[in-house]
Amino acid sequence: MHTTIGIVAHVDSGKTTFSEQLLYHTNAIKKRGRVDHQDAFLDNHAIERQRGITIFAEQGRIDYNGQVYTLIDTPGHIDFAPEMERAVHVMDAAIVIVSAVDGIEGHTETVWHLLREHHVPTFIFINKIDREGADVDAVMGAIKKDLSPNALLYNIGIDTTVKEWLAERDEQLMEKYFIDDLTEDDCTAKLKQMIHQEQAFVCMSGSALKDEGVLEFFETVAKLTETTFDANGSFEGKVYKIRHDNQQRLTFMKALSGVLKVRDEFTFGETAEKVTEIRLYNGNSFTTVQQVQAGDIFAVKGLTTPIIGDVIGANEANPAQFEMVPTLQAKVMYEGELHIKELHRIFREIEAEEPSLRVVWNEKFQEISVHVMGTIQLEVLTELVKDRFGIDVQFGKPQILYKETIAAPTVGYGHFEPLKHYAEVHLKMEPNTRGAGNTFSNECHTDDLTVGYQRLIEKHLFERDHHGLLTGFPVTDIHFTLLTGRAHNKHTEGGDFREASFRALRQGLEQVGNVLLEPYYRFKLKASNDHIGRMMSDIQQASGTFEAPILTEDTVTLYGRAPVATFMDYSTQFAAYTNGKGALTLQFDGYDVCHNSEDIIEQIGYNKNADPEYSSSSIFCAKGKGYSVPWHEAKDAMHCEVQEIE
Question: Considering the entire predicted model, what is its pTM?
Answer without folding.
Answer: 0.78
